[in-house]
Write a structure and sequence with these properties.
With about 525 residues, the chain is of the alpha+beta class. It has 13 helices and 23 strands. The strands form six sheets. Strands 8-7-9-10-22-21-18-15 form an eight-stranded mixed β-sheet, covered by helices on one side. A four-stranded mixed β-sheet has the order 2-1-3-4, covered by helices on one side. It has a three-stranded antiparallel β-sheet with strand order 5-6-23, with no helix packed on it.
Length: about 525
């Protein structure tokens, strides 16, 4: 019954449809077509709406990211030598500032060299204590008179670093160092902006300026103007000291420096230096390899467990000397002093150097019956002596030797010459704060020698000065190398690059565009 009923009902509906007027049938077909078109339009509308929202979101993200980067002044230094990045030492110093420091840049902000401005801003990013103000000389013609000598012309982009009542003028003429090469062409060597600005910050924020006294009265070598300038740049004052007239090492002596003494110190001077060292003094000694008759000075150094070998070191390893076997390129050994230069592909040049040895007394051995053997020196005094720990800073190869007879007709090793290896520089320290550095080569302070290794000798000496004064945070804030490596591209590679960029890449992009267009038309 039910099946027949539904069949009858379906036939009835079909009959009614067949009996519908032609106009009604046409209207029904139109409605179906309109419904299909509407569905098609709705699908495209949704896809278009999704695309519009996606584009809007991308634009919002791009604008937001750009605004954030601009607000935070975010940047990435991709230069080979990290020219615009500050060293870890500078970061440590600037982040630790507890006083406001202002950089007065002498130029309109819109006209400042972009590279310099980037470095200035790197300082500002590190600390809220750093402030930058631009002083257009046309708007502030008299601003620099309070900080710079009237006789000196202030160049654009120069910086006056000010903290409280102290200030230092940093000329933009010194931002880049130049030199002549073998072909007499003038080229830029180093970017010194960070070095000069951090030195200025150290100076203006220091309550006191430590004094380095150079011993006089023994025909010592004079420090070069470049070395003195470097000391002053690291906030040290340099003064001369004659112990015979002074009677004692001054109380404000941060470091006592002896540079290439040609004659020996007296017993009285030795005693005065010993007293100074017992109170936590700091001693830096440079020895002249041509001078040997200095028994008092050598005896003083042995008290700090540093022994001096006679005459001059000869190197046999060709990788550790240049031009001549006495022009040493010693190995830089790891220590607090050499940390910044260790394993950094730099060379220290030490021409005509004395060898140094660690003469720390060996531990006393026990006899068969258990009694300790004591030296005559130990028996003569019941007082506990200070013990200095010795560290090698620069070392020769194992095959080096000390040439005793410098008048010999040969540089080859002879009977009587002393076997190596040696240290060329050593540091010693004790628990009371006393520190000593001895370098067996006073020639390394000469400007021409330092220039041959790109200033590495000065860096080594300054790092030693900062180690002695226990200002390790200032070690190795040095200039950035501006040397440019030239890329040589073979002719074949040039042609491949040309064809790839001019023909192949555009064709691939065009083909990709056509494929995408066809694919979208089929959707």
């Amino acid at each position: 019954m039910n099946k027949k009923f539904w069949k009858k009902d379906l036939k009835k509906k079909n009959t009614e449809t067949e009996r519908m007027p032609a106009e009604e049938k046409a209207e029904s077909r139109d409605k179906k077509k309109m419904s299909g078109k509407q569905m098609f339009k709705n699908r495209h509308f949704k896809k278009g709406l999704f695309s519009a929202v996606a584009v809007a979101l991308v634009l919002i993200l791009a604008v937001g990211a750009n605004a954030l980067i601009t607000w935070k002044d975010f940047s990435v230094d991709v230069t080979a030598n990290q020219l615009y990045s500050l060293s870890d030492q500078t970061k440590s110093i600037v982040k630790a500032l507890d006083k406001d420091v202002t950089f007065y840049v002498i130029n309109a902000e819109s006209d400042v060299n972009g590279a310099y401005e980037q470095i200035f801003n790197e300082y500002k990013k590190l600390s809220s204590k750093i402030h930058i103000e631009y002083k257009d000389p046309e708007l502030y013609p008299n601003f620099t008179k309070d900080y710079v000598d009237d006789s000196e012309e202030v160049s654009n982009d120069s910086v006056i670093v000010v903290c409280g009542d102290k200030n230092r003028y940093v000329s933009s003429n010194d931002f880049i160092s130049y030199s002549y090469d073998s072909s007499y062409s003038y080229s830029a060597d180093e970017l010194q902006v960070e070095k000069l600005l951090t030195e200025a910050i150290n100076y203006v924020t220091s309550a006191e300026t430590p004094v380095v006294y150079t011993l006089s009265g023994h025909s010592e070598k004079d420090l070069s103007t470049d070395i003195v300038s470097s000391f002053e740049g690291d906030n040290y004052a340099v003064e001369s000291l004659n112990l015979l007239s002074a009677g004692a090492v001054p109380a404000d002596c941060e470091i006592l420096l002896i540079n290439g003494a040609q004659t020996d110190i007296t017993e009285e001077e030795k005693a005065q230096i010993e007293t100074y060292m017992q109170n936590g003094g700091k001693l830096y000694v440079f020895l002249d390899a041509s001078v040997d008759d200095l028994p008092q000075l050598y005896a003083l150094l042995e008290e700090y467990n540093i022994g001096v070998e006679p005459r001059v070191v000869v190197e046999t390893d060709s990788n550790m000397y240049t031009q001549y076997p006495i022009y040493l390129l010693p190995e830089i050994e790891y220590s607090e002093v050499t940390d910044a230069q260790y394993d950094s592909n730099v060379y220290i040049l030490a021409p005509s150097a004395k060898g140094l040895k660690d003469v720390t007394p060996q531990e006393e051995e026990e006899t068969a019956d258990g009694a300790e053997e004591r030296t005559d020196a130990a028996d003569s005094s019941d007082e506990e002596e200070e013990t200095y720990t010795v560290t090698s800073l620069l070392a020769t190869s194992d095959e080096a030797y000390s040439k005793v007879d410098t008048e010999s007709s040969t540089i080859e090793k002879e009977d009587g010459d002393i076997d190596g290896p040696f240290s060329i520089a050593m540091a010693a320290s004790d628990d009371t704060g006393g520190r000593v550095i001895v370098t067996g080569c006073s020639n390394m302070l000469e400007t021409s020698i330092d220039y041959a290794v790109g200033g590495a000798n000065t860096d080594f000496v300054l790092n030693g000065i900062n180690y002695l004064s226990q200002q390790e945070s200032k070690i190795s804030i040095r200039a950035k190398d501006l040397s440019v490596d030239t890329a040589i591209v073979p002719a074949f590679s040039q042609k491949v690059t040309l064809v790839g960029c001019v023909f192949v890449l555009p064709v691939l992009l065009l083909a990709a565009g056509i494929v995408m267009a066809i694919h979208r038309r089929r959707l």
